[in-house]
Amino acid sequence: MHSSERIGKLYIVATPIGNLEDITFRALKVLKEVDLIACEDTRRTIKLLNYYKIPVKKLVPYHEHNERKVSKKLIKELLSGKDIALVSDAGTPCISDPGYRIVSLAREKKIDVIPIPGASAVIAALSASGFPTDRFLFVGFLPKKELQLKKTIKEISKLPYTVVAYESPHRLEKTLKILKEMIPEKKIGIYREITKLNEEFLEGNPGKLLNELTLEDKLKGEFVLLFYPSKEEKENENEKSLDEILLQLKEEGNSLKTTVKEACQRTGLPKNEVYKRALELFSRD
Question: Where is the Tetrapyrrole methylase domain (predicted)?
Fold first, then answer.
């Protein structure tokens, strides 16, 4: 891919999060053809390259401790015509992994940044959890400091959509104890070791999950936490949305019958529920 008469391209390459076979043909092609591979841990990347018999080229360590310094050097390489692949230890770079700085700089320099999509622990966990996926919020790793963690838990526990977070194995027990204290009845899912040999999905309230993980010595590996939407907040959101639709239809001069019919079509809510709410709003005049 190298040419001295062109600006190089930066490829953001997703790599397996566990099972080494979870990688695309396109990703392998890019890794074979680029001039440099910027990687979070050279040992992890060498293992992947060896598995697919890809010659180990010049690997450049690129991690949270050297990101600022190395980004500038890599930009110079790109401007000189070299193509670079950015990989993290597992999954998609920039998603709770290093990468933001070099991508930002590359965009500033008008360098092409090309995503090579693939494995992502967030999407994998969501897709197989059975939790609502029409809307979700990914918050990355939960805060380390207890005060900030409690503040975050309070915020996300009330949200009307699924919240996804990462947690490290050495902090999970403490986090579950705090969850048990703050939101003891909250439905939570824990996906551990996704795509690996001991892959497992656990579901229940914080107390149940804490007992299961500690008693069976499962506080090891990689964890994705999923918080089920708050039913109360979900209902409040639906009610607010319904009210807005009903008031809009009313202000447009529609009759009660037409308003109810149109609101049912837009929201998918039962006719008797919509009619009852519409009556309350129409009777205010």
Answer: 9-205
